[in-house]
Amino acid sequence: MAKWIKACATDDIEEEDVIRFDHEGRTFAIYRSPDDAFFCTDGLCTHEKVHLSDGLVMEHRIECPKHNGVFDYRTGEALRAPVCVNLKTYTTKVEDGRVYIEV
């Protein structure tokens, strides 16, 4: 059964940026888009398990810091080699200045 987890405050993430969130042995990446929406994916690249929170965020994309593979963080779609496996995404919601993810 899915549950909502309080991940961070909205002001913990700058526009067009990403932060790492760890919960119960899992790592997530939480993004703030240029249009002020929040998204969440698994926090490790599907190629070599590098933390995506160290990557570059631009125009709804996250670039892995190790081999420059790119994902669309809204859908998890792998967009540029060497990544070829999509990221898992999680539903988010914002309430009272806090970002929640559904896991």
UniProtKB/TrEMBL annotation:
InterPro entries: MocE_2FeS (IPR012747), Rieske_2Fe-2S (IPR017941), Rieske_2Fe-2S_sf (IPR036922). Residues 5-101 form the Rieske domain. It comes from Mesorhizobium salmacidum. Belongs to the bacterial ring-hydroxylating dioxygenase ferredoxin component family. This is MocE family 2Fe-2S type ferredoxin. Gene3D superfamilies: Rieske [2Fe-2S] iron-sulphur domain. The keyword Cell division does not apply. Keywords: 2Fe-2S, Iron, Iron-sulfur, Metal-binding. Its cofactor is [2Fe-2S] cluster.
